[in-house]
Structures are given as structure tokens and as C-alpha cells.
Amino acid sequence: MADLSNWNIAVDFTGEEAAALALGIDPSKPGYTSSVVKPLITRMQFSYQKKIDFQLHDPDLEVEDSSLHNWTDDFDASHMLISVEHQKMLDAFGWDEVGPYSSWIANARLSSFNRQRFSREELTRWFNAIGYKSLYSFDCSYLVPKTADPIKWPWGNHQTKALEHLAEAAQKFWSTYDPSDPYSAPKNETVVRWLTTEREVSEVMAKSIASMLRPDNLPTGPRKRK
């Protein structure tokens, strides 16, 4: 299978791109032959058209209730394929007889399969629904930003109560410190007071923590705000 990692940044795909990727073919590479993926494209187009036909026939029926769809020749409703644009039109306007949605869906040029793009979520769902094992993962879960790992101190995962007090004081009093503005630095007595009253740290330890957190080059004495 070709290296398809360059497609991982894509948010959605044309039908031809999706079919090629599902077969492990990079559609952006020279020598790509659409004939190889034609059967899968045909299946996608058929499933997309079934969704269009469903909306044109009776948009008030629930898609999930496939038992009601005699007109679909017992086609499994979960096998229908909806494009990004179709979903947007449906969400924005809903069904009406003369509105933008009905105009779009009835316009063979605008709603044609070749003009559509399909989201990762929909492709993942559709391939699972029809039981087709795609060689390329359209699963978009890796696109969801991961929760940042907690900031680790230089000593790694090692932790003590004193280090916790140090970390909390650093976050509370020094995270907004601007080296160009000495006035933004907290006073040592302010840090000591907070540690002794809010975190019940001894005065000796509180003074040590306040001293450790104070920048080495911070001037002493009265400060003036810029």
C-alpha cells in the first residue's frame, strides 16, 4: 500500500479520492488509474443517489426506519451516503417545497455526485455500515486536539508536598510576570502570606519557596510601573 500519510491533513474528500484511498491508492500520484476504483466509486454514487432519492420521495420519514421504504427496494437506509454540502443544506434550510434546499437537491448539476465532498465521519460510518474494510483510516479521532499533558518539572514524575507548594505558587504569582515590567513581580511577603495562610506552609518553607521563585536579576527596592 502506498504511503497515504499526506492525506491525514484532509478534512473531506471527493468520491474518487475516498474510493482510491480506501483501496490503498494515492490519487495524487502520477499513474493513478481511476478504472481500478470504479466499482467502489459506483457503489458510493449509488448510495449517495439513494439518499437524494429518499429526500425527494418523502423527507419526513425517518432514515433509520428502513422497513417503511418499499420504494427503495429494501435498500438498507444506513447504507445511504450523505455529502458535506447535502448535510449543510439540510441543516440550514430543512425540507420545503420551494426553498433553497429543494432547489439544490433538484438541481442535477449542483447535487451531482461528482461535485460532492464527503467528511471523514461520514466515510467512516458508511464503510462500517456496508462492511467494507478500508485500507486507509478515515477515522477522524486523531484530528481531535489531545488534552495537553500536565507540565512536568525537570525531575519528571517525582512529587512531594513541598514541590506541589512550589508549583502552585509559581502558577499563581509568576505565570503573568513580565520581565520588562518589574512592577508585575509579586512581593516576597505576598507569596509568603499566601503560602502560610492558604496552603498552611511553615513560614520558613514559605520564605524559601518565595526566594527560589524570585528571578535572580530582579532589582530590589521600590519599583515603578511603566
For this entry, give a set of tags.
2 domains, 226 residues, elongated, mainly alpha, two-stranded antiparallel ribbon, 8 helices
Task: Please give a structural write-up.
With 226 residues, the chain is mainly α. It folds into two domains: 5-143, no CATH class; 148-226, no CATH class. Helix content is 42%, strand content 3%. It contains eight helices and two strands; from the N terminus they run E-H-H-H-H-E-H-H-H-H. It has a two-stranded antiparallel ribbon with strand order 1-2. The longest helix is centred in the first third of the chain and has 24 residues, at 34-57. The model is unreliable at 61-72 (pLDDT under 50).
Low-pLDDT sequence parts: 61-72
SSE topology string: EHHHHEHHHH
Rg: 30 Å
Task: Count the domains.
Answer: 2
Cα end-to-end separation: 62 Å
Shape: elongated
Mean pLDDT, to the nearest integer, reads 80
The strands making up the biggest β-sheet line up spatially as 1-2
- The number of distinct β-strands equals 2
**Which class of secondary structure composition applies to the elements?**
mainly alpha
| Share of β-strand residues | under 5%
Q: Main beta sheet, described?
A: 2 strands, antiparallel
Roughly what percent helix? 40-55%
Helical run tally = 8
